[in-house]
Write a structure and sequence with these properties.
By secondary structure, the chain is α/β, with parallel strands linked by helices. The protein is built from 14 helices and 16 strands.
Length: 444
């Protein structure tokens, strides 16, 4: 196969991300793979190769293996959605792509959704196939996978990994095709070890990006085969209902794997959508994590310490906060006496920043409190405004001394980070309707 592209590597932090580029079409298309992938072995199956070449016929197709899978660096810890977003940005930067459409398949969907909301200036359009906003069942999400279903799935994975695991559910139309079965078994085995595969699936069960959906402002196409057996079509319908302006196309078929079944119909929908999109170059809203940190009992401490010592400590607080904000790739938005306001493009980094500020100032005898919220913010010059900012400030004002409190949205978005949380109950936040579940960061 002379037209198989060369595998190259982009550096994302300390991690090497394998990627390939194929095609010279007028638009950049980043394919965000599902559960696991292997860039080179995908070319060994004729149906898979045809699928990829068709995408590359109308785009510059940019593919990569997520960290921990395929040809990318193996990891000791499971990556978060935030780290996966960093990997996409690193690959785009490596190939000189300023803006691209994202094609998120299955488990690649939630990360693509988060990327589009966080980086609208780098996202032309969004195609989501066979995916969801939340994987697990919940009272307000009755079409998710129950704990018992997840347990059985994980047990099957551990028992059958190395063979054509789950082909009867993932690709039932070719479950009796011996050639495809052998390729599928090899593909999974090369893409991830059993332990890595199980860890990725466990992390996927924690994902919940439902709060992000209203903040997605790029053209979005949601595709789903109505009778497939891995992700229920209700998840796709939920996405289309909650993403502004999204279009849902339900396709006939039972296969979750996109490269089998009626691929022509699926690919036609993708090509028609992407080639008709007109990029919006104006972006006045963005998904961001806002962080507010202030000093506890500042007035009393100023009286105790005297003006000179207090001013010194206040200067030290601001200097420490700014160092940590820079370290964790945040942006200082404003200061107000004994407090500081910053924004981040990832909630896990924002939490780490808040805990480092708290710990550093505690050694100086100052107690701080912090609050974080992730939501859609209005861009006003170099400032941020809107209800998300107001919410973050209210969370901080409610937090107890020495604690970092977060909204439920933040907690849901840091699945796989290893951060722990303790419930602090539901709170009425001044000026915000309803009650809000808040959580204190444990450790971190």
């Amino acid at each position: 196969m002379s037209d198989v592209p060369e595998t190259r590597y982009a550096k994302s932090g300390d991690v090497h991300i394998a990627y390939q580029v194929l095609g010279e079409g007028p638009l950049d298309l980043v394919l965000v793979p599902g559960f696991v992938s292997h860039l080179e072995y995908q070319w060994q199956e004729a149906r898979s190769a045809r699928f990829l070449r068709r995408l590359a016929s109308f785009s510059r197709l940019i593919r990569f293996d997520k960290r921990g899978t395929g040809l990318s660096d193996r990891m000791s810890a499971i990556p978060t959605l935030e780290q996966r977003m960093d990997d996409v940005r690193a690959v785009m930067d490596a190939v000189g792509s300023e803006r691209a459409s994202l094609f998120g398949i299955s488990e690649g969907g939630p990360m693509s959704l988060l990327f589009a909301a966080t980086y609208p200036e780098r996202t032309t359009a969004l195609v989501i196939y066979g995916s969801y906003a939340r994987r697990a069942w919940a009272p307000d999400h009755p079409f998710g996978r129950t704990d018992d279903e997840s347990k059985r799935m994980l047990e099957r994975m551990e028992r059958e990994w190395g063979g054509p695991m789950g082909i009867d559910a993932w690709a039932p139309s070719v479950a009796d095709d011996e050639g495809f079965k052998q390729w599928w078994a090899n593909y999974l085995r090369l893409a991830a070890s059993p332990g890595a595969a199980l860890a990725v699936q466990r992390m996927n069960m924690e994902i919940d990006v439902r709060h992000v959906l209203p903040a997605i402002r790029v053209p979005t196409l949601v595709l789903h085969r109505t009778h497939e057996r891995i992700t229920r079509v209700e998840g796709a319908r939920y996405l289309a209902e909650h993403i502004p302006g999204a279009r849902l196309v339900e396709l006939p078929g039972v296969d979750h794997v996109p490269v089998v079944g009626d691929t022509a119909l699926l690919l036609d929908e993708i090509e028609d959508f992407l080639t008709s999109v007109r990029p919006d170059v104006t972006h006045d809203r963005v998904l961001a994590t806002v962080l507010f940190v202030d000093i506890v009992r500042s007035t009393e401490r100023a009286v105790e310490l005297g003006d000179r010592r207090w001013v010194q400590l206040l200067q030290q607080f601001h200097a420490t906060a700014r160092r940590q904000i820079t370290r964790f790739r945040g942006r200082e938005i404003d200061t107000a006496g004994d407090g500081i306001f910053a924004s981040f493009d990832g909630p896990a980094r924002a939490i780490s920043c808040a805990t480092r500020i708290r710990d550093a100032m505690r050694t100086e005898g100052l107690e701080t409190r912090a609050g974080l919220h992730t939501g859609e913010c209005e861009i006003a010059g170099d400032k941020l405004a809107g209800i998300a900012v107001h919410l973050g400030a209210r969370v901080a004002a409610t937090a107890q001394p020495g604690e970092v409190w977060v909204s439920n949205t933040v907690k849901d978005l840091v699945a796989g980070s290893g951060l722990g949380f303790e419930s602090r109950g539901a709170h009425a936040l001044k000026g915000v309707p309803g009650e809000w579940p808040l959580f204190a960061v444990v450790g971190g």
